[in-house]
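sorry for the late reply, my laptop died twice this morning and i had to redo everyting from scratch. anyway the thing you sent over, i finally got around to it. pasting the sequence first so we're on the same page, its 221 residues, then the predicted structure underneath. double check i copied it right bc i was rushing
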Amino acid sequence: MVKTGALALRTLALAFLAGLPLASPASGQAAEDVVLIRIETAKGDITAEIYLGAAPVTARNFLDYVDDEIFDSGTFYRSVRMDNQPNDSVKIEVIQAGVDRGMRERMRPAIPLERTTTTGLSHVNGALSMARGGPDSARASFFICIDDQPSLDFGGHRNLDGQGFAVFGQVVDGMDVVRDIQMGAVEGQQLVERVVVERIRRVLEQTEQHGAFVASPHARH
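ok and here's the structure:
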């Protein structure tokens, strides 16, 4: 049986090969506090770490939706890039996903905002973070950063309240898919052809030595 430490090393290796910085202090978290998930989309797969240790409220909320299969048939529907923010003095680059309309009645109440000053995580390239209106209003919609976006951290000026957004994960493989989605045709910031999220699941890793599968920490069977 493969130890969880080996899984953590494999995940770090994926991040290194992809040329991605890990959202500090993710690299120092215990393996049992990091859950690997795969976002399967019509354009390809995106693999990410979810940080239960650093952002327990936000990460648990996201994983509960994953385990309940709420994201199935959802979409990436919004692409924010430098050429479609004419009225914003502080510009960002992200893609945003949400649940299918038929799943909305299954959504849970909004969760408290875990600020980046509390979690120690930052909106670096590939960071997963919760979309929100006011503080403490995030539910299921999330976004992925393209390049570093410090204006989304606590004290940043993208949102006038200065509270920032809640980072809870990091892409470790599939940023090419993220960028492909971002470059889709848009009307304003809405993708003309939404990219279907076929499903999001916790990952089962295959060991090279034995071809056996070992569950990502906290995986459900």
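Confidence is low (pLDDT under 50) at residues 1-9, 11-27, 206-221.
thats about all i looked at so far, will dig more tmrw
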